[in-house]
Specification:
By secondary structure, the chain is an all-beta fold. The protein contains one helix and twelve strands; from the N terminus they run βββββββββββαβ. The chain has one helix at about 170-175, and strands at about 1-5, 10, 15-25, 50-55, 65-75, 80-85, 95-105, 105-120, 120-135, 135-140, 155-170, 185-190. A hairpin with a 2-residue loop joins strand 8 and strand 9. The longest helix is centred in the last third of the chain and has 5 residues, at about 170-175. It is elongated, with a radius of gyration of 21 Å. The two termini are about 25 Å apart.
Length: about 190
């Protein structure tokens, strides 16, 4: 899927930085094929709007050492999708298919963290993310079918710890010392 986002630094005193990022996800990726049980689509299949609130705090009044906080809320918009109307979620085999309206549940996340610029373009970061997605609402035209079966396991709550090292040539590029700006990261993530 594609993402279009704006960024507004609304408050930046010497000891912190605060920004808002509104954005939209566009469904450009392929979704699951209901006729292929082994298929796994890489797109969500629906539009979504989101807002991120970003906050960096510099306890030593130096942006090289930052405590970070990112909060996001995402509204997922309804879309039509072809589903197989199975009776038992543990046996998703059926001939019956229907194009139904899916209203994906909204999502929120809260991610505190720390960023430390070590030397040159080398940096260390660590975050702990709390995320929640609400249950999908699914509506169809068959009054005899229980559509709630299809929305089972569409909600979740997760906590993820991530840490890593990064390297950026952006400073060197703007100083005209390096010919190309790029970022490289090595991360380790674990669902807690």
């Amino acid at each position: 899927d594609a993402q279009l986002m704006g960024h507004w630094n609304w408050f930046s005193p010497a000891w912190s930085g605060h920004a808002l990022r509104p954005g939209v996800y566009f469904p450009t990726g392929r979704t699951d094929d209901p006729d292929n049980l082994a298929d796994f689509g890489f797109g969500k299949g629906y539009f979504a709007g989101f807002i991120q609130s970003l906050h960096d705090f510099y306890p030593l009044r130096n942006p090289k050492y930052a405590l970070t906080l990112k909060a996001q809320y995402q509204i997922n918009l309804p879309s039509s999708k072809v589903y197989r109307l199975y009776q038992d979620p543990s046996i998703p085999l059926t001939q019956k298919k229907e194009t139904i309206t899916s209203n994906p549940g909204d999502e929120w996340s809260l991610t505190p963290g720390v960023d430390v610029a070590i030397w040159g373009g080398l940096s260390f970061h660590s975050t702990y993310a709390f995320a929640r997605k609400f249950k999908d609402g699914i509506q169809g035209s068959d009054s005899r079918y229980n559509y709630k079966i299809l929305s089972g396991d569409t909600d979740f709550y997760s906590e993820t710890w991530e840490t890593g090292l990064g390297f950026s040539t952006t400073e060197y590029y703007t100083a005209k010392v390096f010919p190309v700006p790029f970022d490289f990261e090595v991360n380790y993530a674990r669902v807690v």
